[in-house]
Amino acid sequence: MLPGAPDPPGWRRRWGRQPGPGLWCPSLLLLLAVLLGCIEAQTGPGSGGEPELNVYMSEEEVRRLIGLDAELYYIRNDIINHRALSFNLIIPTETSSLHFSWHSKSKVEYKLGFHVDNPLAMDMPQTNISLQGDVPRSLSVFRVDLFCSGKMETEIMLVMQLNITISSAKNITVLNFKRRKMCYRIDPVNVAPTTSTRVFYISVGVCCAVIFLVAIILAVLHLHSMKRVELDDSMSDSGSSQGLSQPSTQTTQYLRADTPNNATPVTSYPTLRIEKNDLKSVTLQEAKAKVKDIAISRERVTLKDVLQEGTFGRIFHGILVDEKDPSKEKPMFVKTVKDQASEAQITMMLTESCKLRGLHHRNLLPIGHVCIEDGEKPMVLLPFMNWGNLKLFLRQCKLVEANNPQAISQQDLVHMAIQIACGMSYLARREVIHKDLAARNCVIDESLQVKITDNALSRDLFPMDYHCLGDNENRPVRWMSLESLVNKEFSSAGDVVGP
Ligand SMILES: *[C@@H]1O[C@H](CO)[C@@H](O)[C@H](O)[C@H]1NC(C)=O
Ligand SMILES: *[C@@H]1O[C@H](CO)[C@@H](O)[C@H](O)[C@H]1NC(C)=O
Ligand SMILES: *[C@@H]1O[C@H](CO)[C@@H](O)[C@H](O)[C@H]1NC(C)=O
């Protein structure tokens, strides 16, 4: 079926009620999966005498979880939608139940099981159907309840396994539904109006974006005036001299100063989730175990040129060979460590690489695969973006600007900033805190598409951007430095942002 053709039964789109633009961007990828799944299902083998099994999320459920008006089929008329199954949906803290709709024309047996990667943080999920039985013959809904134990604040990887046995053919189909459940404390005072919490998160996202936009525009002004060579470094330097000992108050003040008309009452700021850096509590074995499901064989990866190099980390341009068809190759970023890297550094690379895992948005670049074979240096693979790191790119633009007639325009920069805003707004809605948004953690391709990525190895590759505040922990001091930067040059920034 083509998207323009009449809707087949069961596939209902409501173009009349499109979600707002903010909801569109995160949903596009998923919509694509829904559409492709639909096409796949329609072109699949006919269903003569087949059980006609359907498993899906209703439109209501998809809207609740993703904000898109569509049904999401996992199985449609016996055809499995692998794209839909590959989505690792994020379940926010306040959502504690999932609903699946299913039915089958003839006898199909099922077995249901769950796997939780951190049983301490979450109790085993409960369902309101038995764990073994026959798929109902009429359209039914089952519920899966997810309860955080409250003993820990963390994210939990959760797999719901549904084994399907079609009685005529005695073989089992194993389906894995992956979910990433957030278990964070929600300030009880502010729990009640979830929409206002959401608005708050979005506004925080937008604030981040505005700050970033201002930073980029200032960067351009600097490029044009050619006054400074090392913008970011000077930013950091000026920041480091200004009361770094109180990072949290600085951030709050900044939010207030930047958004004087923000309707969000100041009292709601405590809802901003504060994440502790608990990297030290994770061992290398645990970090490896967490990424086991995306591990691939080292043989499929060929390393080419080194793109960036630090004291213990390196980013390569690599080639990933397709699993089934060895003639198909995909370019990748490969983050890896050198021989002298300590176990803690390797653990940190693996842990930080998972920051955006399971997120699907065109302005986010989450981890793709890992190679964690014993005796080899671990590698983290991300899809390749051919113009590479955004910070290096912007720096290079400045260098070539003098003799390059096609230097990037201000429109391009604003377009980049908007894309980052889009990605951040999505992160905010998914309750993922990036903690280190900066140009160094973004990548760009030749169509000027920008994607936010994780900050694994950034401390090593951009040491000038991180400061050790008397202890052994390196922090990006960008918030403080931007504030001072903005305060100092507020008029010129206001002029640019104003129109
Ligand atoms: C599903 O089948 C696989 C392979 O046969 C088995 O390992 C797994 O335990 C089964 N899961 C459930 C929930 O029964
Ligand atoms: C399970 O719960 C859902 C929603 O709470 C309900 O719609 C459904 O009928 C229940 N299913 C069974 C088998 O009780
Ligand atoms: C499972 O059943 C399908 C459909 O009947 C059949 O095509 C397939 O070969 C079977 N697979 C195995 C491993 O028996």
UniProtKB/TrEMBL annotation:
Protein name stated in the entry: Tyrosine-protein kinase RYK
Highest rank taxon of the organism: Eukaryota
Ranges of biased composition (kind: Low complexity): 236-253
Region listing for Disordered, in residue ranges: 234-261
Membrane topology recorded in Swiss-Prot or TrEMBL: Single-pass membrane protein
Residue span(s) of domain Protein kinase: 301-499
Pfam family, one: PK_Tyr_Ser-Thr
One GO molecular-function entry: protein kinase activity
Residue ranges of the TM segments: 199-221
Ranges of residues in domain WIF: 55-183
BP terms from Gene Ontology: axonogenesis; cell surface receptor protein tyrosine kinase signaling pathway; positive regulation of neuron projection development; positive regulation of phosphatidylinositol 3-kinase/protein kinase B signal transduction
Alphabetized UniProt keyword annotations: ATP-binding, Glycoprotein, Membrane, Nucleotide-binding, Receptor, Signal, Transmembrane, Transmembrane helix
Gene3D superfamilies linked to this entry: Phosphorylase Kinase, domain 1, Transferase(Phosphotransferase) domain 1, Wnt, WIF domain
Major location category of this protein: membrane
Signal peptide stretch: 1-41
